[in-house]
Amino acid sequence: MTRKDPVITVDGASGTGKGAVSQLLATRLGWKLLDSGALYRVLALAAQKHGVSLDNETALQVLGEYFDVQFIAYDSPLPRILLEGEDVTETIRTEKMGNAASKIAALPAVRSALLNRQRAFREFPGLVADGRDMGTVVFPDADTKIFLTASPEERALRRYNQLKEKAINVNLSDLVMELRERDKRDQERTIAPLKPAEDAICIHTDHLTVEEVVERILSEV
After folding, report:
1. In 32-85, where does DSSP find H-type helix?
2. What is residue 145's three-state secondary structure?
3. Are 7 and 123 within 8 A, CB to CB?
4. Distant-in-sequence, close-in-space partners of 66: CB < 8 Å, separation ≥ 6
5. Which of 15, 99, 98, 57 is nearest to 191 (CA)?
6. Which residue from 2, 1, 7 is spatially nearest to 120, judged by alpha carbons?
7. Fewest Cβ atoms nearer than 10 Å: which of 45, 83, 146, 163?
8. CA atoms within 13 A on the CB side of 125
9. Per-residue pLDDT tens digits for 64-75
10. Could you tell me which residues are beta bridge partners of residue 32?
């Protein structure tokens, strides 16, 4: 029997800290990193670039199977992401792209198209996979499954501070409302809804730093 490379999945809603936690965890372990949410954001941007409607499931499936995307790791909080050779690392992090990604992620054909791409990230010496269905669908045999939670108010405040640092004006109450709407959409979709795996370790992050969450996960590993 061939032993598969180990995987730690880190799932949770937007703003729970899973991106920062996964990045630091992968760095500490010296493992590969998969930001699955970025794949959906890049696909949403590719759809916009090529004039594909976000409700055209067939066209999105074809685009998802063949669009040119590259993740280039650097000594920075986020990997550099290229779409058809163009750096879109910052472009895909807007609220607009986040909402668009949430919409197309609810389409079964789109999730199917990206499934094999995500599983291909499983390489030696191991993988930290960040997303919403990493432990339930993409890597159900993962060695350790983590599910992060945080209140909508805390998550919105984190996002608000991130945007203010970039001199982007945003309304905090609007962010809370958008997060609640995205949560509802992610939790109620028929394919791969947002929920913890049965064997996941749930960590509430409202009053924890990224380093504290990572230490908790490492203690479990």
Report:
1. 36-49, 57-66
2. strand
3. no
4. none
5. 57
6. 7
7. 163
8. 6
9. 999 998 877 655
10. 127
Classify the C-alpha dihedral 188-155-176-169 as positive or negative.
negative
CB contact at 8 A, 177 and 154: no
Please tell me the distance from the alpha carbon of residue 79 to that of residue 101, in angstroms, as a whole number.
18
Query: Residue 79 has which token pair?
Result: 């990997």
The reported pLDDT for the residue numbered 198 is: 94
C-beta of residue 126 within 8 angstroms of C-beta of residue 7:
yes
CA-based nearest residue to 92, from 40, 130, 128: 40
Which residue type is seen at 28? R
H or E stretch including 95? helix 95-104
What pLDDT digit, counting tens, does each position of 80-139 carry?
889 999 999 989 988 889 889 988 988 999 999 999 889 988 989 999 999 999 999 999
Name the phi and psi angles at 99, rounded to 5: -70, -40
Spatial distance between the Cα atoms of 148 and 21, rounded to a whole number of angstroms:
10
Task: Give yes or no for a contact between 73 and 123, defined as CB atoms under 8 angstroms apart.
Answer: no
User: Which two structure tokens, joined as six digits, stand for 62?
Assistant: 């074809």
Would you say the pTM of this structure is higher than 0.70? yes
